[in-house]
Amino acid sequence: MEIEAKFRVLDRMVFIRLRQLATLGPFCLVHTPGAEHQQNTYFDTADRRLTASRRTLRVRDLGGRRIATVKLSLSTVAGIHTREEWEVDLDAGEHPTDWPASAARDRALAALDGADIFPLMTIHTRRQYSYAIIAGTQVAEISLDEGVIMAGGRMTGFRELEVELLAGGARAELDALVVHLQARFALIPESNGKKKRGLELLDRAVDSLAIGSQLCIAVETAEPAEALEVGA
Question: pLDDT tens across 47-69, in order?
Fold first, then answer.
């Protein structure tokens, strides 16, 4: 189970100031040096059956490692996202038939029911990690993300902070950490995940193509005088 809070961050100084903190309320903060560079490709069928069933299929390329992830969204409330999640490291193709035997493969194949998959979008992310510790136990992972979402020939940038509950933590500790973060920094709860924002880009591109096609048809079928008026 994945439980995480997502926030939009307008001011990049938030990232800098957060990574300078050693404590936040009762939590100790440990910051991993450097940054991780990700290329995330999201896939679906031609009829978007995965999206329609609240599922996500993502392949993350870290350079020396590729990870396939299948997610099932359960709920989103005030920027807190709850999902079931299955992962497997890849050593071959991106279609689940090529994945190693795993729960992720089984879940993906069942959801696809034999259908082909196609890339929907690519998201490039620069991620920095910090960890919240209480009583000697890591309870949450804080990800500071900056990057760009590309879909349908369009792109949009993003900057956001994610707080994910770890196996050693309790939901109450995640909630407390979120309260302290919001009290200290200007954070905007984000109900839309990166995939949903990418789908919005893709849909706008499809709508623009449809409008352009309709205009071309109108010009081609109009009488000369009408065509001048359409193109005016």
Answer: 999 999 999 999 999 999 999 99
| pTM (two decimals) | 0.86
Residues 13, 182: contact at Cβ < 8 Å?
A: no
b vs e for 7-18, b when ≥16 Cβ sit within 10 Å of the residue's Cβ? bebeeeebbeeb
Domain boundaries, the chain: 2-192
Residue given tokens 């807190």 in the structure block: 80
Per residue in 16-25, pLDDT tens?
999 999 999 9
Strand 66-77 relative to strand 23-24: parallel, antiparallel, unpaired? unpaired
How many other β-carbons are positioned within 10 Å of the β-carbon of residue 40?
A: 21
Alpha-helical regions (H) of 76-117: 103-112
Dist. CA 82–CA 174, nearest whole Å? 13
Round to whole Å and give the CA distance between 193 and 201.
13
Among all chains, which residue has been given the structure tokens 């973060």?
A: 181
User: Would you tell me which CATH number, out of the four given (2.10.70.10, 3.30.420.40, 2.40.320.10, 3.20.20.70), belongs to the domain 2-192?
Assistant: 2.40.320.10
